[in-house]
Design goal:
Elements: H1 5-26, H2 43-55, H3 59-66, H4 71-79, E1 84-93, E2 98-102, E3 107-111, E4 127-136, E5 139-142, E6 147-149, H5 155-171, E7 174-175
Parallel strand pairs: 3-7
Antiparallel strand pairs: 1-2, 1-4, 2-3, 4-5, 4-6
Helix pairs in contact: 1-2
Amino acid sequence: MILTLEDKKLFFKNWLKLLAFVNNKYKIVKKFGNPENPVGLNINDIGKIRNKLWENVNIIEEYIKCSNLENEDKDIIVLWKKYKKGKFTIIKSLKKYTIFLDNKKNQLYGVNGITSPIIEMIPFLPIMVETTLIPFKNKIIYDSLLEYENISFGSNYKKYFIENYNNIKKEKGIICEL
């Protein structure tokens, strides 16, 4: 449901170095520097930088060419070009992952938390969130930021989401890798 301690470190090492590269290139946040862990970072600053990254995902190739990365790091980062950005409805939490529903594409994604289970970070289910899903070591995670909309759904919507979940799961299954 969440990444191992080793994988958390690996994710944040690569994610923060990529964000620092994007920030240095576009001069988005003045004092972002080269953080080595997310503790104490301003979420709004991360959001601004990550939005710039997803506007021009080709910067990932530029970063890989300019950086002296180990093969494992390159393999992880290059896959982030397969991101899925958008609004999702979080439907339910299972043992292996949390179910994100892409209403536009009628697809279900099994998403893992990074440092804590996603269910612990949201106030209720179902909930609409905006984020970017990215691949990480044969799993799907999100790009460290979940922005949720404070919209509560009535019982009819909740039934609709569960029915839709069951139908999509039966027809297409749950996507667990990007």
